[in-house]
Amino acid sequence: MHEPPSAWIRSIDAVYAFVEDESVRSKYPALAERVLEAVQTCERALETYGAANCALSFNGGKDCIVLAHILAAVLRRKAPNTEGIPKLHGLYVACASPFPELEDFIRYSSSQATGYNIDLTWSKGDIRDVLADWTGQNTTYSGVSHRHIRAMFIGVRRIDPHGAALALESPCDPDWPPMMRIHPILNWEYADIWAFLRSPVLATNLEVSAQGVTGGGSHGVPYCILYDRGYTSLGSTFNTRPNPLLEQSGEYAPAYELQDASAERAGRG
């Protein structure tokens, strides 16, 4: 496997500029506080559970990419002699009818050569069965078995369904496999997500031409191209459409132009 370009690694390492560089912190104070909390949450979880016992819930959405970028930076900081990005277990549970562009982006962004070096398990089954296998409860599940996962990083925010009652770390419910859920970006707002993804601090200056991918270059971090087509929240193809608030003369503005954050899910059926 090829190592990622040095410009990509610099973009990931630049996450810590929001934590340690006073000029960056003073220029982007609100975003810097969000990143600081996320970094500290990731650091604490990795210290508690160990990277080998952690996994990332990875669906290719905007929130998940913010978390993956931050987590990759923390993993690199904890493994200073690593040239690329330390491998992390990941789980993608496909919805009933996923967008092809989204799954193209998932392949791009999870790879070692172009993304976050995620050892990604693709599943269409019951997530409880997968987690039961990963925690060692289920010895009959036919998927890839890790059997030692103790914590899962999840890019959930408070605006998401059931997000309001969560903490930065929340154990799974008693009827689920025993696992700690880690929510580093729980307190982020819609505007914070796009401020991070499009931050010049994280610019890669690499032009991205892969199918399903946009962003990056001088505009920050690559993300799924559907967001540039007016989608602000992604679900199945049969119940997701571009956000109607972004329609302009029959076309749609990109997701980062949405002003009313409360309408983030307006395109979801």
From TrEMBL:
Does Nucleotidyltransferase count among this protein's keywords? yes
Catalysed reactions listed for this entry: FMN + ATP + H(+) = FAD + diphosphate
Q: Which Pfam families match?
A: PAPS_reduct
Look up keyword Flavoprotein and say if it applies.
yes
Q: Which residues form the Phosphoadenosine phosphosulphate reductase domain?
A: 54-199
InterPro entries attached to this UniProt entry:
PAPS_reduct_dom, Rossmann-like_a/b/a_fold
Listed A to Z, the keywords are:
ATP-binding, FAD, Flavoprotein, FMN, Nucleotide-binding, Nucleotidyltransferase, Transferase
Q: Which Gene3D superfamilies match?
A: HUPs (3.40.50.620)
Annotated GO molecular function terms are:
ATP binding; FMN adenylyltransferase activity
Any GO BP annotation: FAD biosynthetic process
Q: In which pathway does it act?
A: Cofactor biosynthesis; FAD biosynthesis; FAD from FMN: step 1/1
Q: What is its EC number?
A: 2.7.7.2
Q: What class of enzyme is it?
A: transferase
**Superkingdom of origin:** Eukaryota
User: Mind telling me what this protein is named?
Assistant: FAD synthase
This chain's source organism reads Malassezia cuniculi
The gene name on file is FAD1
